[in-house]
Amino acid sequence: MARTARTVARSSADAALHGRHVTPGQDLRTAARIQHQLLPPSLYTGRYIDLAAKASPCRVVGGDFFDYQDTSGQFRLALGDVCGNGAPAALHAALVQGLLAIEAEGNDGASSAMTHLNRALCRRAIPGRFVTLFIGIVTPEGRLSYCNAGQCCPILVNHQSVRNLTVGGIPLGLFSNAIYEEQSLAMTPGDTLVVVSDGVTEARGRTENPNEEFGDMRVLEAVREHPEATASAVLDHLLAKLRGFARQRQQRDDATALVMRYLGEREHEVVSCQPGADSRLV
């Protein structure tokens, strides 16, 4: 919430300084800066969580976002994708981010939070617009509770298995009476959660088959190839694979990726937040 207040203050100052001579291009650049400021730092290490995330709009601004909040009793994270891209999607995404911040203060479970978000978006229904969203809540003991509202299939990876996290419901903003479910899983130290938007898995490369997509298997390979690495290293490896696959082909959709590694309970709390040198994926 404090981050949102600071962003509003900066945007008000921008308007006061440049309001008389603002071009459409300047407006978009200012909007892009504000959208970036609404995101939390790209890198985070806490007492039991190591996280890295990056977002890249296919235009100046976009409809993808990620968020997280570490409280004394739980770590909450989210990744969302608003239908469409550009300025309309960015406005809708900002609304969802604000609603998420309010829900985090209420300390609801994943499915309850998703139900409240869906009802709020349905009250402000925009024709043809919906939101896919993943919400995860992790306790210090390693209990992951999640709800997936149509988000491109997240995975939980450890040395023995891969779980597809599909429990939840339909995308948000379509039907006010939609029902959302959640699932609770036990994690062990080293387990890795990966959530991406469809701009990652559906990215196309300059291969012999121009319609071939990056796909879910390449996302999994990126995690498997670095089983002991930090969340940041896994994310960087995933993005390197994506760039190599795309080979500078024009990005067709907003793309966002989040990697979270469960560290296990540690005696001393170590918190580190870094904005990251580059928030773009490709």
Short description:
This protein has one domain: Phosphatase 2c, domain 1.
CATH topology: Phosphatase 2c, domain 1
CATH class membership = Alpha Beta
Structural class: alpha+beta
Total beta strand runs: 13
**Which superfamily, in CATH terms, is the homologous superfamily?**
PPM-type phosphatase domain
What number of structural domains do the residues give? 1
For the largest beta sheet, what order do the strands appear in spatially? 8-7-11-12-2-1-13
Low-confidence stretches: 15-19
Helix percent reads 25-40%
Task: Please give the alpha-carbon distance between the first and last residues.
Answer: 29 Å
Q: Shape from CA axes?
A: globular
CATH architecture: 4-Layer Sandwich
Tell me the strand percentage band.
15-25%
Q: How many strands, which pairing sense, and closed or not: the largest β-sheet?
A: 7 strands, antiparallel
User: What series of H and E elements makes up the topology?
Assistant: HHEEEEHHEEEEEEEHHHEE
Number of helices: 7
Tell me about this structure.
With 282 residues, the chain is an alpha+beta fold. 34% of the residues lie in helices and 24% in strands. It has 7 helices and 13 strands. The strands form 2 sheets. Strands 8-7-11-12-2-1-13 form a 7-stranded antiparallel sheet. The radius of gyration is 18 Å and the shape is globular.
